[in-house]
Amino acid sequence: MSASLSPPSAAHRPMTEAEFFAWLARQERRHELVDGRPRAMVGATLRHNRIIGNLSAALRSRPRGGACQPYTMDVAVRIPNRNIRYPDAVVDCGPYADNARAAAEPMLVAEVLSPSTMDFDQTEKLEEYRSVPGLRHILMIDTDQPRLRLHSRGEDGHWASEPFAGLAALVAIPALGIELPLVELYEGLTFQPLPRLVTPGAPE
Questions:
Q1: Which residues have CB under 8 Å from 121's CB, separation 6+?
Q2: Is 114 helix (H, G, I), strand (E, B) or coil?
Q3: CATH of residue 164
Q4: Is 197 inside a domain boundary?
Q5: Which range has the worst mean pLDDT, 5-14, 43-52, 185-194?
Q6: Is residue 24 part of a domain?
Q7: Phi and psi of 103, rounded to 5°?
Q8: How far apart (Å, rounded) are the C-alpha atoms in residues 42 and 148?
Q9: Are the C-beta atoms of 139 and 162 separated by less than 8 Å?
């Protein structure tokens, strides 16, 4: 789930991370920190939340190396440009601390794409995630159809992406040593048929 694109409120000096987390604890709505200003996050549909829940269950049901733990929605990821983002899911492989609000060593982040923000998520936000040191995998998950794109950082530091589609698809996550079946991510959901392409002049 992504931040709305509404402009920040009154001009003040940029918030520090500590100020932002202290302010956020008093708010009813969820926010991200963008360019030093809190930005309200867009509410999600039940379908969106179902996919997040399915992803969380899939991650928790598989063995993970060492201290890696999956979290959803309320664990922040620090971006080197000082933004603070809240992906729909994050796997943190860093040391655990009861009072921490951000992932210590995020290894994987996932965004379930919403129509209103999917362009932003797949461009600017994707580049922000790619700038996070140590992050190895980024999942961009379609809401309407069983498909996703996996972005992975290789040992040489370069990023590559691979699309997956169909409920039979199996997505390997090498840094965690697991595989995620799309059928589990979309469990309990139905799909609208895709529009049929019609060639001009061809019989219906």
A1: 2, 111, 113, 114, 140
A2: coil
A3: 3.90.1570.10
A4: no
A5: 5-14
A6: no
A7: -65, 135
A8: 21
A9: no
For residues 24 and 11, give the distance between their C-alpha atoms in angstroms, rounded to a whole number. Answer: 18
How many domains does the chain contain in total?
1
Residue 170 near residue 181 (C-beta atoms within 8 A) = yes
Q: How far apart are CA 43 and CA 152, in angstroms?
A: 28
69 falls within a domain: yes
| pLDDT tens digits, one per residue of 75-113 | 999 999 999 999 999 999 999 999 999 999 999 999 999
Q: Is 162 contained in some domain?
A: yes
H/E run at residue 118? helix 118-120
3-class secondary-structure state, position 132:
coil
What is the residue range of 123's domain? 44-185
Q: Is residue 91 a contact partner of residue 108, using CB atoms and an 8 Å limit?
A: yes
Structure tokens at 168: 């039979």
Q: How far is CA 160 from the centre of its chain?
A: 17
CA 164 to centroid of chain Cα atoms: 16
